Automatic annotation (TrEMBL):
It comes from Streptomyces alkaliterrae. This is Methyltransferase domain-containing protein. SUPFAM superfamilies: S-adenosyl-L-methionine-dependent methyltransferases. Residues 132-199 form the Methyltransferase domain. Keywords: Methyltransferase, Transferase. Residues 10-20 have a biased composition (Pro residues). Residues 1-28 are annotated as: Disordered. InterPro entries: Methyltransf_25, SAM-dependent_MTases_sf, Thump-like. The lineage of its organism: Bacteria, Bacillati, Actinomycetota, Actinomycetes, Kitasatosporales. PANTHER family: S-ADENOSYLMETHIONINE-DEPENDENT METHYLTRANSFERASE RELATED (PTHR14741), TRIMETHYLGUANOSINE SYNTHASE (PTHR14741:SF32). One of its GO terms (biological process) is methylation. Transmembrane segments: none annotated. GO terms for molecular function: methyltransferase activity. Residues 348-420 form the THUMP-like domain.
Length: 423
């Protein structure tokens, strides 16, 4: 689900007129689709406008009032859409007020900052026509269209396709987006007709998240075979995918947003360095690359501790970061770095360490009491102790703050006490 960047100073256009209800892409009536299309009628649009700023805590009273003048089914659909728009604001910003969603679409769609980043890279490759397979409600499709790419968006869900059509219309992008409701393996995607393909396979099943790439829908191997036939390709995968599952002719990129890892993408094409690995930090766009760098040595904790961004850890680029920082590992199996010199970096958070002690709950409690620490941030890597349990047992109290790291140093359970190096 890809998106494309829009300059921050671009004014939001007025909401587009609602498209007329259509059965395009449907062989037979679908109650879910019909309920959604009712929201695109003038009456449905008025209801959505009225509910734009409603408080979900007042939903019962609001629903009772609206049902006096409107069918109960339409009111229910409008309230549901209003709730989804409020949830989607975290991913789509102000566009969420004009867009349409499904519950799965809100949860699984690419957030705009990630889609904008990906779309910019696609455009830099010279792509003008792209097939977005498993497009969902259109996070990536809309971003690509905003960037000037013409997109064939394919999804097997009639409701999802109807929602994407409405989104393209509402955002003024319908002339660049063709939506096709079909199984992705039934749609011919060939070089010449398309410059690139983007595949975002379903990674959830009846029992929740799917971790085996061959259990994706469609399987990763199917998407890789398709990518091999195209001039350019990008395949979205789970960020926890084993590195052994990454094809050797792909570049793997892990992406985090404000320090939280969101996704991984496999890139294929002439401009890709096979086997390369990349970590990208958004919204700033900082990138670190590498692959195959020897692991740094491990040793005792020095004055500063660096906590690498999750994208750096998932991409196995801790060694490259250690070289930039002149740092070493605190333990061969733990992704914490330590150094005597503080070097600014966007790829890790730095802490000044005041105490490095063998793990001992009583000693920690006494130390916190002595320093009047009432605000305690607990971080852990390689420790079985849960942060909330530790806070409950030490009962911090006082005006000061501190950070404690529960980890291993040279194989031994250790607690490190410190504070952020930036204040």
């Amino acid at each position: 689900m890809a998106r494309v960047a829009v300059p921050d100073d671009t004014p939001n256009p007025a909401p587009a007129p609602a498209p007329a209800p259509s059965s395009q892409g449907r062989a037979a009536a679908d109650p879910e689709v019909d309920a959604f299309l009712a929201l695109l009628t003038p009456t449905g649009q008025r209801l959505l406008t009225e509910l734009r700023d409603y408080d979900p805590a007042d939903e019962l009273a609001v629903a009772t009032r609206l049902r006096r003048d409107h069918p109960a089914g339409l009111v229910s659909a409008a309230l549901g859409q209003a709730r989804l728009r409020q949830r989607a604001a975290a991913k789509f910003g102000q566009d969420a007020e004009r867009m349409y969603f499904t519950p799965d679409g809100v949860e699984q769609s690419t957030r705009r900052v990630v889609a904008d980043h990906r779309a910019a890279r696609v455009v830099a490759l010279g792509v003008r026509r792209l097939a977005d397979l498993c497009c969902g409600i259109g996070g990536d499709t809309l971003a690509l269209a905003r960037a000037g790419v013409r997109v064939l968006a394919v999804d097997r869900s009639p409701l999802t396709c109807a929602v994407l059509r409405a989104n393209a219309e509402a955002l003024g992008l319908a002339d660049r987006v063709e939506v096709r409701c079909a199984e992705v393996d039934e749609v011919p995607v060939v070089p010449g007709e398309f410059d690139a393909v983007f595949v975002d396979p379903a990674r959830r099943g009846g029992r929740g998240r799917v971790f085996d790439p061959e259990a994706y829908s469609p399987p990763l191997s199917w998407a890789v075979e398709l990518a091999a036939r195209m001039p350019n390709a990008a395949l979205k995968i789970a960020p926890g995918v084993p590195h052994e599952a990454v094809p050797k002719d792909a570049e793997a990129e892990w992406i985090s947003v404000n320090g939280e890892v969101k996704e991984a993408v496999l890139w294929f094409g002439a401009d890709v360095t096979p086997g390369a690995v990349r970590a990208t930090l958004l919204p700033a766009g900082d990138t670190i690359t590498g692959g195959g760098h020897p692991a740094p040595p491990a040793g005792p904790v020095l004055r500063y501790l660096y906590e690498p961004d999750g994208a750096v850890v998932r991409s196995h680029l801790v060694a490259e970061l250690a070289e930039q920082l002149g740092a070493r590992l605190v333990d061969p199996t733990i992704a914490y770095l330590t150094a005597d010199e503080l070097r600014p970096t966007p790829f890790a958070r730095a802490y000044q360490i005041t105490d490095a002690l063998p793990f001992n709950l009583k000693r920690l409690k006494a130390l916190l009491r002595e320093r009047e620490v009432g605000t305690l941030t607990v971080k852990k890597r390689g420790s079985p102790v849960e942060p909330e349990e530790l806070r409950r047992r030490v009962r911090p109290k006082g005006p000061n703050s501190a950070t404690v790291f529960l980890t291993r140093v040279e194989g031994a359970p250790t607690m490190l006490l410190g504070r952020p190096a930036d204040g």
